[in-house]
Amino acid sequence: MAASGKAEYGLDYFLKGALAGGICCSITHGALTPVDVVKTRMQLEPTKYTGMISGFNKVIAEEGAGALLTGLGPTAFGYFVQGWFKFGGVEYFKIQAAQSMTEQQTWDNRNSIYLGASAAAEFIADIFLCPLEATRIRLVSNPTYADSMLGCMAKMVKEEGVIGAFYSGFGPILAKQVPYTMAKFAVQARSISHWSPYDRDGVVNADS
Q1: What's the distance, Cα to Cα, between the start and end of the chain in Å?
Q2: pTM to 2 decimals?
Q3: What residue ranges define each of the domains in the chain, with the CATH number in brackets?
């Protein structure tokens, strides 16, 4: 993290961070859609889906291999949006915090800055993720519910309303995602400052 007053960060910097985060999250979570399908089935029907490998085999045998990609649309799009706000948000909030302090204060409070920035960014990201995660779960749990992501979302809103359809699981998502994101960015930052002999501006790192 750059010390306050050492660098100027324009809109392009934050957009690049947001775009990189969105692309990476979309690809990684999208690629694991088959795992999410089987995991969700195991949670919903534990007596039928008793293990990961047997769950894969059962889904393929009963519904075809394509069923393992159920929910790919809301997963890929949802985590693109989540990654956009998470990674872009972390950069924004940590830089805003650092620029409000002196150089020494920024260094002394670097752990708190990373923890606070990541918590705020993840909270915002989850506001956008939650509707798409609810859509994914509905499609996986009931493949005949709707033919598409948008069709599923429209039907859910019609039957349950926006809050009931999309945000009934907001609390659990926050309880899962916020601590995870705080730990991820804090550990990453401490690892970089500990093992790298230089900070991002080429200044010798005091932790090395």
Answers
A1: 15
A2: 0.83
A3: 11-195 (1.50.40.10)
